[in-house]
Amino acid sequence: MNRRNFIKSGAALTALAFFYPEKIIGGEKVMAAEKLKWWQKTIVYQIYPKSFQDTTGSGTGDLNGVTQHLDYLKKLGVGAIWLTPIYPSPQVDNGYDISDYTAINPDFGTMADFENLVAEGEKRGIKIVMDLVYNHSSDKHKWFLESKSSRTNSKADWYIWKDAKPDGTPPTNWRSFFGGSVWEWCEERQQFYMHSFAKGQPDLNWENSEVRQAIFDAANFWLDKGVGGFRIDAIPYIKKPAFVDGKPDAKDGMIAVHTMTVNTPGILDFLHEFKEKVFAGHDIFTVGEANGVAPEDLKYWIGDNGVFDMIFEFSHVNLQFKNGEVYCRPTEWKLTELKKAISDSQAATKNNGWYPMYFENHDKPRCVNYFFKNVDTVKAAKVIATILLTMRGTPFIFEGQEIGMTNVNWNSIENYNDISAHAQFDFAINEGFTAAEALEFVHFFSRDNSRTPMQWNDKTNAGFSTGKTWLPVNENYKTINAAAEDKNFDSVLNWYRKLAKIRADNKELTQGDYQLLLADSEEIFAFSRSLNGKTFITAVNFSDKKVALQKDFTDKKIILDSESNFDKNFLQPLEARIYK
Ligand code: TEU
Question: Which of 233, 258, 262, 419 for a ligand 1 pocket mutation test, highest count of atoms within 8 Å of Cβ?
């Protein structure tokens, strides 16, 4: 960026601000009091247990496999582990279809294994966080089996049942997340039931107070086991609006259920009851998965008057498909859009609530492929890590992200396990794309990308399992694996460890204010974190160009750089740097 652009961008002003960051009130410097809770100062690590570590040779990961790696996580600065669902489940949606809310899936181990994990975690200062899936259950849950048996049983009203339209067609034209109608016909009742996701995931009826109490009891069961918090799944969909048709958004004549049911007025009453009967008064954290809650509504969802401590919103990870929930072909996006999305979320949580920072999870592709095209993935992984661990908010690392794992490109749709990859493939074909094009979209978006087994070493199945793995191991495990990276000073893993240590040692990085710098740059993502007159600056180059830096950067002290031979006047392509 040249001098004129630099000044025009407002970066000159922000640069000035970081020379004089302390607030002077009545001539006295005001020191911000430390009032962060444990979960605001730690790092959360998300584990997809099915793919983390198999200790039995079954080909599927298990809870003892998680326990086995607690020391590895401790070394990464992790203070809490979010486990994706470990409950009994027919696995229609890999555990998000739950058939018993207060038990452990035998494939993952026993309740004793779970209690052991909690206890071993406790010894190391690592809490276990459960995933609560209460928008829907499995269709094999005993509640649903009873509910579907007649129109008069004691749980007849526990799910969303509706009559057909007079012409026999489904009650509305809503399309489920995984394709096709949200309505499934039930012979016994001669009625349709609603499923926002798969047919095997019927939506619970939150209007029924007995349902809510049963849900709250299930969550309290896990609090009694000593868990450190909850991630609450698909929560903005629990309140249903009027059951009317919407304007079709695709050739199938349907409309995405998300558009119709997200954040329906009245939802907050349910959530306040949830808070009061479950979360309140416990030293835990809650993070709701709330795709589609707008920044201006955040104040109702998080913070003192809200219901959760944090919510995962999706503005920075949905840039890749701008056509809403009807996602198909990936769209182009700009770095300024990513910076704006993150900065808007920072602004919305500056004085109220807290922000969970993430770039990967079990529903998203690997970040080195999602935010970059055909680049050195080691460098790209360090770019993302640097933003993640110096940003304001609680960082969430998804398993394998810390070693720079990448997407897979399987050559047939048949090879894909993810129910949503199949839905997307069929959807693309219906929209008129060729099979080859549809497969390209799957390569880019499939959730299997992040679900392949964790790469521990260069031995059989990457050290994940001695059996036939439930999902193939990524072929690149010989070079990308934790054991090799542990020994390599310049690895992605050791970069994460260095960043985690800097974050833990410097309050500015947990408590400090966030300020975007060089807002207009399409190459550099730079921001400062200031507290009581001390400032850290992060500057990373997202582009494939060497970019010159202005004096406001070059006269600062560099404390970490991803290039061993760095030049203070420039950032090389994908170079990541921290100043103090
Ligand atoms: O995802 C719910 C959800 O809302 C996402 O589909 C989201 O809208 C999408 O990722 C936008 O990019 C949760 C779980 O994370 C997912 O794994 C489950 O399949 C789903 O709920 C059903 O339980």
Answer: 233
Q: Which helix (H) or strand (E) holds 116?
A: helix 111-123
Instruction: Tell me, in angstroms, the distance from the centre of ligand 1 to residue 498's CA.
Output: 32
| DSSP run (H or E) holding 43 | strand 43-47
In angstroms, the CA 52 to CA 66 distance is 7
CA distances from 471 to 68, 85, 366, 468, 502 (A): 21, 17, 16, 9, 36
Is the model's pLDDT at 424 over the cut of 70?
Answer: yes
Q: Does residue 198 line the site of ligand 1, with CB under 6 A?
A: no
Measure 363 CA to ligand 1 centroid, in angstroms.
Answer: 7
Catalogue the active-site residues.
233, 289
Residue of 46, 87, 94, 96 to mutate, ligand 1, most atoms within 8 A of C-beta: 96
Average pLDDT of the residues in 27-33: 41
Q: Which of 84, 177, 237 best tests ligand 1's pocket when mutated (most atoms within 8 Å of CB)?
A: 177
* Predicted confidence (pLDDT) at residue 323 exceeds the cutoff of 80: no
3-state secondary structure 349-367: CCCCCCCEEECCCCCCCCH
What does the pLDDT read at residue 497?
Answer: 98
CA neighbours closer than 13 Å in the CB half-sphere of residue 208: 16
Extract the tokens encoding 538. 């992060």
Residue with CA at minimum distance from ligand 1 atom 18? 96
In sequence order, what are the residues at sequence separation of 6 or more whose Cβ sits closer than 8 angstroms to the Cβ of residue 21? 513, 528, 530, 531, 533, 534, 535
Considering the entire predicted model, what is its pTM?
A: 0.93
pLDDT confidence bin for 24, thresholds 50/70/90: very low
Residue 373's SS3 state is: coil
Share of the chain above pLDDT 90, in %: 88
pLDDT digits (tens, 9 = 90+) for 460-476: 999 999 999 999 999 99
Residue 32 pLDDT greater than 70, yes or no:
no
Does 431 have pLDDT greater than 90? no
Beta-carbon contacts of residue 268 (< 8 Å; ≥ 6 apart):
300, 301, 307
Over residues 100-119, the mean pLDDT reads: 98
Per residue in 447-458, pLDDT tens? Answer: 999 999 999 999
- Residue 440: exposed, middle, or buried by beta-carbon count in 10 A (0-12, 13-18, 19+)? middle
Give the model's pLDDT for residue 327.
57
Pairwise CA distance, residues 127 & 120, whole Å: 9
CA distance 370 to 391: 19
CA geometry: angle at 348 spanning 345 and 349, to 5°? 90
**Is the separation of the CB atoms in 524 and 571 below 8 Å?**
yes
Q: So what's the pLDDT on residue 8?
A: 33
Distance between Cα 196 and ligand 1 center (Å):
10
Distance (angstroms) between ligand 1 centre and the Cα of 443 equals 18
Residue minimizing CA distance to atom 4 of ligand 1: 234
